[in-house]
Structures are given as structure tokens and as C-alpha cells.
Design goal:
The protein is mostly helical and about 35 residues long. The chain has one domain (about 1-35). Helices cover about 95% and strands about 0% of the residues. It has one helix and no strands. It has one helix at about 1-35. The longest helix is centred in the middle third of the chain and has 34 residues, at about 1-35. The N and C termini lie far apart (about 55 Å).
Amino acid sequence: MQNMILIAVLLGIAAFSLYKAVQESRKKSLISQRHR
């Protein structure tokens, strides 16, 4: 049972970091579009 919880927590952290990375890249693309 503890293994399942550990896997769930790791998946949550991975998903969160991925989500943050996507937001950052979107911000950068928006900024680069404005400069043109």
C-alpha cells in the first residue's frame, strides 16, 4: 500500500513540474511574439 502512495506522490510532483514548465514556455512565447 505504501508503494502506491509513494508512486502517486511522485506522479503528482512530476505532473506539477511539467505543468509549471509548460506555463513558463507559454510566457516566453508570448513575450517573444510581442517583440516582433
